[in-house]
Amino acid sequence: MDPAVGWLLLWGTLVGLDLITWPQAMIARPLVAGTVAGWILRDVSSGAAVGVILELFALDLLPVGAARYPDYGAAAVGATYAASGAPGVLSWGLAVLLGLVVAYAGQGGIHVVRRRTGAEVRRVAVALDAGDPDTIRQVHFRGIARDTVRSFGVTALGLVLAAAVRAWPLLGLQGTALLQMVTLGAALGVSVMGAVRLSGRGVARAWLAAGLVAGAGWVLLR
Amino acid sequence: MRPLLRAWLRSFTVQGSFNYDRMVGLGLAYVMEPLVRELPGDEPMARYRRALARAAAFFNAHPYLVGMGAGALARAEREAVPEPQIERLKNGLIASLGSVGDRLVWVGWLPVCSAAGLVVTVAVSPLAGVATLLVAYNVVHLLVRWWALGAGWRDGVRVASALSGPAMQVALRFVGRAAPFALGVAIPVTVDWLARGAPPAALPGVAATGVAVLVMGRWLAPALGGVRIGLVLLGTAFLVGLVWR
C-alpha cells in the first residue's frame, strides 16, 4: 500500500471533523482539503484542480440551522488520490464524480450521527434535565467520537473508490473528454446558482453582476 | 486556566453533540459550564445544576456566536436574574444569534474568503490560495468567537445591544456587498483557468452544461441542490462514456 494513504486517511478524518464538529477552521473547504492532499501525494496541481472544482460546487451550500450538506472536504481527499498521477486535465472528470459520490455519502453520515446523538440524548434525558455535568460532558464527547468515526469512514470510502479508479481506468479517450466537459460545465452552473442564491435580491444582486463583469474583464484582458 | 479562556476553547467544539432534539443545547451547556461553576449566593451547587439544565435544553444559534449566548446566560445566572427572565433571554437569543451569524459568516465572510482563495490559487499558486483562505477566514473567525463570548459575559441580559451596535451594522453591510462581488469575480476567472487545457471544441458543451444546471437548479428542480444535480449529470456522462469507445 502507498504509505501516503495513511497520511491521507488522517488528513481526511481531520477535514471531516472540521466540517461541523471541531474546530470549523475551514480546512474542510475542498480547495484546502484537495490542495493539501495533493501536497501529501507530491502532486499539488492535481489536488488544486480537484479542490477548485469541488470548491465551485461547495459555493452552492449554506450550512444554516439544521441543514444537512455534502462533505466536500473529505471527498476532495479521495478525489485527489484518484486524480493524482494521471496526465493533466484527463484526470479530473472521474475524480470529481467520485468526489460527489463520497460527498453525498458523507451527507448521509451526518444525518446518522445526529440521529444517534439524539437517541442518546433521549435515553439520558432525566440526567440532562437535572443538569448533571458529567452526563453533559459524556454525551458531548460521544457525539464528537461518532463524527470522528464518520469522517474516518467517509475518507476511507473515498480512498477505496479512488484506488479502484486508479487500478481499473474505465473510460476511453472520448468518454474521458465528455466527462471532463460535463464536469466543468456542472461546476460553472452550480457555482453561479450558489452565487445567485446567496446574493438574494436588490443591491447584492447588482454587486454580483458587477463582480461577474470585473471577472470577465480580467479573463479577456489576460 | 481562567474560566473565560476555558469557555472560549470549549466553544470550538460547540456542535460536537448537535442533534435534532436539542440542536446545540448540550454544546451551549458544555461551553457555559466553567462560567457557572462557582456561583455566588445560597445553594451554589443547586443553582449550578439548574443553570446547566436550562442551557442543555433546546438551543440553536450560529456556532461562532453560541459563546455570546453562553456568556450572557452565565452572567445572568451569576447575577441571580429570575428564572423566567433567563428563559426569555435564551429564547430571544436563538433567532438573533442565528440570523446575525449566518449573514456575517456563512453568507458573508466565508464566500469572500473562498473567492479570494480561488482567485489567488489561479493567479499566484495553489498553496498561496490555501494560505489566503485559511488566514483571512480564521483571523475573523477567532476574533468573532472571542468578541461574542466577551460581549455576552460583559453585558448579560443587555447583550442585544452588542448585536445591534454600529460596528456590527457596518460589518454586515460590508460583507453583504463584498461576498457577491468576490464570487462574481472568482467564478469566471476560475472557470477560465480550468478550461485552459480543454480543446476549444468542448467550450460550447461546457457553456451548455452550465446553462442546463442553472435551469435545473433555479426552476425545474430547485430542491435537488448542487451535489445531486452534479451526480445526475456526471453520472449520465460517465455511463455514456462507458459505451462510447
**What is the number of strand segments of chain B?**
0
Class by SSE composition of chain A: mainly alpha
Q: Report the uncertain regions of chain B.
A: none
Report the count of strand segments of chain A: 0
Distance between the termini of chain B: 66 Å
Q: What is the rounded Rg of chain B?
A: 23 Å
- Main sheet summary of chain A: none
Query: Termini of chain A, distance in Å?
Result: 43 Å
Q: Topology as H/E string of chain B?
A: HHHHHHHHHH
Q: Decide which structural class fits the backbone of chain B.
A: mainly alpha
Indicate how many domains the architecture of chain A comprises: 1
Per the principal axes of the C-alpha atoms, what is the gross shape of chain B?
Answer: elongated
Describe the structure.
The complex is a heterodimer of chains A (222) and B (245). Chain A is mainly α and 222 residues long. Helix content of chain A is 78%, strand content 0%. In chain A, helix 5 packs antiparallel against helix 7 (133-167) and helix 5 crosses helix 8 (173-199). With 245 residues, chain B is mostly helical. Chain B folds into two domains: 3-196, no CATH class; 199-245. Chain B is built from ten helices and no strands. Chain B has helices spanning 3-11, 25-32, 44-55, 66-78, 83-123, 126-155, 160-163, 166-195, 203-220, 225-243. Chain B starts with a helix and ends with a helix. The mean pLDDT of chain B is 95. At the A-B interface, helix 2, helix 3, helix 5, helix 7 and helix 8 of A face helix 2, helix 3, helix 5, helix 6 and helix 8 of B.
What would the keywords be for this entry?
heterodimer, A: 222 residues, mainly alpha, B: 245 residues, 2 domains, 10 helices
Topology summary:
The complex is a heterodimer of chains A (222) and B (245).
Chain A: H1 4-20, H2 30-40, H3 44-58, H4 72-83, H5 92-123, H6 125-129, H7 133-167, H8 173-199, H9 203-221
Helix pairs in contact in A: 1-2, 1-4, 1-7, 2-3, 2-4, 3-4, 3-5, 3-8, 4-5, 4-7, 5-7, 5-8
Chain B: H1 3-11, H2 25-32, H3 44-55, H4 66-78, H5 83-123, H6 126-155, H7 160-163, H8 166-195, H9 203-220, H10 225-243
